[in-house]
Amino acid sequence: MTGPKAVLVGPMGVGKTTVGELLAGRLGVSFRDTDADIVAAQGREISDIFVDEGEEYFRALEKNAVATALVEHDGILALGGGAILDESTRTLLAEHPVVCLSMDVEEAVQRTGLNQARPLLAVNPRKQWRELMESRRPLYAEVARAVVATDGRTPDEVAQAVLDALELKEA
User: Fold this and answer.
1) I need a labelling partner for 10 at 20 to 30 A (CA). Which of 52, 80, 86, 107 fits?
2) Buried-state track 23-41, b at ≥16 Cβ within 10 A, e below 16
3) What is the greatest pairwise CA distance in the chain?
4) Each residue's pLDDT tens digit in the chain (171 positions)?
C-alpha cells in the first residue's frame, strides 16, 4: 500500500499534530498536517480564511489538500477536525490506516480553552463543541480503523496507543 503509515483524525485541539510528530519520530518518517499545508499555500491563518472567504471556500481547499497529501505523503498525516465532512474525502480515507483521537468536552476546554482562534466555536463554545461532535462522531467512526481516547493521557501514551492499535513497530 502507498500513502501514509497512519492518518490522524479527530476534533480540534485533540492533539493530532503533537501525537503525529511523536509518531513520525518513533517510526523514522516525516510528519505532515493538511491544515499547515493550507496555511502555507494561502499565506494566512485558517481563521482568516474562514472570516474572509467562508467555510465553504475553506472546505474546498481542505478537500484538495487531503487528496494531495494522501497521494504524496508516506509518513504520518494529520487532518483538520472537519476534513471528514466531505464524502469524497471519507471514501479516500477508507483505503488508509486512520486513527481517530477522541476527547470529551471537559478535556477540550482544558486543552484549547475553546478560544477565539477556533472560528466554529465563537459563540457558546461548550455547546457548539458538543453539537459539532454529535454531528462529526459518526463520520470519525466511519473512517477510523481505531479510536484512541486522549483524556488524561500524555502525548507519549497516546502515541503508543496509536502504534499498538495499528500494530506499527518503532524504527
Assistant:
1) 52
2) bbebbebebbbbbebbbee
3) 44
4) 579 999 999 988 889 999 999 999 999 999 999 999 999 999 999 989 989 999 999 999 999 999 999 999 999 999 999 999 999 999 999 999 999 999 876 666 665 555 445 555 555 667 777 788 889 999 999 999 999 999 889 999 999 999 999 999 887
**Do residues 17 and 80 make contact, with C-beta atoms less than 8 angstroms apart?**
no
The reported pLDDT for the residue numbered 171 is 74
In 1-125, where do the E strands start and end? 6-9, 31-33, 76-78, 98-102
Could you say which DSSP state residue 113 is in?
T
Q: How far is CA 13 from CA 18, 26, 152, in A?
A: 10, 22, 14
CA 19 – CA 78 distance, rounded (Å): 9
Residues in the chain: 171
What is the Cα–Cα distance from 3 to 66, expressed in whole angstroms? 11
Q: In what order do the strands lie in the sheet with 98-102?
A: 31-33, 76-78, 6-9, 98-102, 146-149
Which CA distances in Å does 109 have to 92, 113, 126, 141, 154? 31, 5, 8, 22, 16
* Residue whose C-alpha is closest to residue 35's, from 57, 10, 17, 53: 17
